[in-house]
């Protein structure tokens, strides 16, 4: 099961964190942009080329200490077809370097349309009798608020090809409570969604106690995070909201179980823009990213403890 592989990477690196590869041109050192624009022009192709060089350098700097990356599709789609190609090449490069890849697409639809999303990001597509892998990520974020019709089409692909999903449960944004904190009977909407993840996960059991159906639960709501950890014993958490969004180590402590497992914590801007925060030479952007990733790892492990199978 795919999330077993993620758990094994977390234990091997002793690092329950994921680097979000959500690049904007403003995050890139000027010399990378100048080099790409000189080759391709100041256009979408030049922007996408600069981002790919940036991403590959970050992967090289992080792959031995960070178990996973999470590229957010919107940051690639905004550069059109060239940006989507950069997404594809980023996924392939990170996997080549041994990293687990979570495609952050928050896909949401039903029936054959959801099957098409599953095929694109996790599966294989047949063309005249020959099979091809479109993007090949290890896991995909999913919006489950269309109910089972929007999730079940993914489960067959996940089982067949050893993939996983992370379903939005309690998100980190300030307005999440407008819907997710409302009640269905005596339970909150997010609690109901979490229990659905537990149920869907029965189709994808894992050998370390967690299923292939994970949940997105934000660090910005630490009480709910701890509450859900107790109520969802077989659901692995992807935790956004650390760092730039305001969450710290104490806020994510409740996401982990007694083995130091149960969650992987995301940082995007904190790592991508570490060179700006340090005010170091822009050509040391990878060194700054690595230093921030190590600082984050040590911060999280101070509350999660050693990870063990």
Automatic annotation (TrEMBL):
Top-rank taxon, per record: Bacteria
Catalytic residue list: 106
Matching Pfam families: OMPdecase
Biological or metabolic pathway of the protein: Pyrimidine metabolism; UMP biosynthesis via de novo pathway; UMP from orotate: step 2/2
Key words of the record: Decarboxylase, Lyase, Pyrimidine biosynthesis
One GO term (biological process): 'de novo' pyrimidine nucleobase biosynthetic process
PANTHER family according to UniProt: OROTIDINE 5'-PHOSPHATE DECARBOXYLASE
Family to which this protein belongs: Belongs to the OMP decarboxylase family. Type 2 subfamily.
Listed HAMAP family: OMPdecase_type2
Protein name in the entry: Orotidine 5'-phosphate decarboxylase
Gene symbol of the encoding locus: pyrF
């Amino acid at each position: 099961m795919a999330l077993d592989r993620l758990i094994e990477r977390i234990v091997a690196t002793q690092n329950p964190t994921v680097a979000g590869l959500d690049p904007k041109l403003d995050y890139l050192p000027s010399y990378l942009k100048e080099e790409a624009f000189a080759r391709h022009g100041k256009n979408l192709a030049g922007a996408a080329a600069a981002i790919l060089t940036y991403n590959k350098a970050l992967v090289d700097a992080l792959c031995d200490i960070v178990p996973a990356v999470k590229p957010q599709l919107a940051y690639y789609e905004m550069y059109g077809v060239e940006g989507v190609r950069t997404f594809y090449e980023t996924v392939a490069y990170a996997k080549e370097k041994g990293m687990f890849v979570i495609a952050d697409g928050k896909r949401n639809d039903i029936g054959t349309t959801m099957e098409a999303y599953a095929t694109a990001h996790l599966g294989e597509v047949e063309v005249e009798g020959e099979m091809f892998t479109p993007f090949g990520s290890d896991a995909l974020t999913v919006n489950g608020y269309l109910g089972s019709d929007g999730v079940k089409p993914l489960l067959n692909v996940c089982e067949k090809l050893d993939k996983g999903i992370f379903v939005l449960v309690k998100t980190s944004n300030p307005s999440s409570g407008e819907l997710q904190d409302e009640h269905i009977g005596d339970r909150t909407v997010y609690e109901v969604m979490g229990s659905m993840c537990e149920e869907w996960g029965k189709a994808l059991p894992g050998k370390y106690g967690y299923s292939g159906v994970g949940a997105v639960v934000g660090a910005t709501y630490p009480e709910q995070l701890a509450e859900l950890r107790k109520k969802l014993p077989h659901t692995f958490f992807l935790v956004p909201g650390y760092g730039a969004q305001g969450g710290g180590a104490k806020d994510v402590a409740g996401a982990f179980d007694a083995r130091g497992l149960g969650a992987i914590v995301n940082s995007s801007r904190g790592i991508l823009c570490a060179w700006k925060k340090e005010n170091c030479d822009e050509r040391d952007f990878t060194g700054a990213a690595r230093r921030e990733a190590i600082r984050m790892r040590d911060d999280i492990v101070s509350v999660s403890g050693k990870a063990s199978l």
